[in-house]
Specification:
- The chain is α+β, with helices and mostly antiparallel strands and 170 residues long.
- It is built from six helices and six strands.
- The strands form two sheets. Strands 1-3-2 form a three-stranded antiparallel sheet, sandwiched between helices. Strands 4-5-6 form a three-stranded antiparallel sheet.
- α1 (3-17) crosses α3 and α1 packs across α4.
- The longest helix has 26 residues, at 144-169.
- It is elongated, with a radius of gyration of 19 Å.
- The mean pLDDT is 91.
Length: 170
C-alpha cells in the first residue's frame, strides 16, 4: 500500500474517531478535497478499501452513506496515529470543532420511505441521539410523491413535530 493512500485512510479514521456520531461520505470528502490532500477518485478508493478491510461500517439511507469507525478501525488508528502529521491533526481538530454542530445536525435527522405490502408508502422519520432516538415515527402515505415530500420536510420540521407530539401526549 502506498504511503499517501495509507495517510488518507488514517485521516478518514481520525475524523470518524473525533465524533460520537457517524459522518457522511460528503462531510469527510468536503474536508479532504477542500484541503487538496487527494483527488475524488483516490478518495473513493480509500472509502472502498476501509469498508472492505472492515475499518469502517457503512449505513446507507436514501442514497447517503453514513460512516462509523469500527473497533478494528479504532485499533489501527491507535497503532498508526503518529503517521498523521501534527499539522494535519490540528487542521482536522479545528475543522471538526468549527463544524461539529452542523455536521451532527446533518446526520441526526433522517427520513426514508419504502413501498409497503398494501401498495402505499411508509415514511420513517427519525431523530438520532448518541444513545437513543428521541423520536422514531413511521407514517403511511398514499403515493411516492407524498413520501418524497414528507422526507424532504422532515429535516425542517422535525423539532416542531416532536414538540407538538410531546405537548399533545403529556
Amino acid at each position: 500500500m502506498s504511503e499517501p493512500v495509507s495517510l488518507y485512510k488514517l485521516i478518514v479514521l481520525y475524523m470518524l474517531d473525533k465524533t460520537d456520531f457517524p459522518l457522511t461520505k460528503a462531510q469527510i470528502s468536503d474536508f479532504i478535497l477542500e484541503k487538496g490532500y487527494t483527488n475524488y477518485f483516490t478518495l473513493q478508493s480509500v472509502f472502498a478499501d476501509l469498508e472492505e478491510g472492515q475499518m469502517v461500517r457503512v449505513e446507507t439511507v436514501r442514497n447517503c452513506s453514513y460512516y462509523h469507525i469500527t473497533e478494528a478501525g479504532a485499533e489501527a488508528l491507535k497503532y498508526f496515529h503518529s503517521r498523521i502529521a501534527s499539522s494535519i491533526r490540528e487542521e482536522i481538530d479545528q475543522y471538526m470543532q468549527e463544524n461539529k454542530i452542523q455536521m451532527h445536525d446533518e446526520v441526526s435527522v433522517l427520513a426514508d420511505y419504502y413501498k409497503n405490502t398494501t401498495g402505499d408508502y411508509s415514511v420513517r422519520c427519525v431523530v438520532k441521539d448518541k444513545y437513543s432516538n428521541p423520536i422514531d415515527l413511521t407514517i403511511t402515505v398514499p403515493n411516492e410523491e407524498h413520501a418524497k415530500k414528507a422526507c424532504r420536510s422532515w429535516r425542517e420540521h422535525s423539532q416542531s413535530i416532536y414538540e407538538f407530539i410531546l405537548k399533545e401526549l403529556l
